[in-house]
């Protein structure tokens, strides 16, 4: 699975070590862990192992988890980030992160374009939602470039990634 500059690999605990160093930087955590409780490497391994198996206890029968590690094609081909989506049938939520060293190059945009093509194949007809801290302008610009529309937060479905005050965006299926 690939795009022009990137390879995509189903996320497993084997990705935890490389992603740990990316995840636990202040810039990456600023808007996704505002309380400053980053995971330990052991917690990350356990979390990724669980993600690779899907939800152990299904909250709803239609819940589906999708997780990919993003690897740069150019040698030494590091893992540079991850893509997430949880689908609940007609709607779902997405999340994404790249290590700070790879920001500002259009790589998140490239990865997310590929992600939406992938999700359209495995979960067709899903409206994808994202909840974003209002000061996370990089993420908001990315969502707008991807065709997401801002929606009043009162109209959101039950987004597990929503924190009070977040902006909500939705990309309807084409
Ligand atoms: C959100 C996040 C993924 C955005 O990454 P990003 O690199 O800014 O996003 P893009 O790939 O869209 O890159 C856009 C930038 O690359 C530039 N760029 C360079 N070449 C480009 C190309 N070929 N195509 C598109 N953009 C390009 C754009 O001009 C833009 O720069 P600007 O932001 O200074 O205007 C990243 O900031 C991140 O991981 N943050 C931490 C985790 C997080 O907050 N996740 C979101 C939670 S809701």
Automatic annotation (TrEMBL):
InterPro entries: Acyl_CoA_acyltransferase (IPR016181), GNAT_dom (IPR000182), N-acetyltransferase (IPR051531). Residues 6-149 form the N-acetyltransferase domain. It holds the Pfam family Acetyltransf_3. This is GNAT family N-acetyltransferase. The lineage of its organism: Bacteria, Bacillati, Cyanobacteriota, Cyanophyceae, Leptolyngbyales.
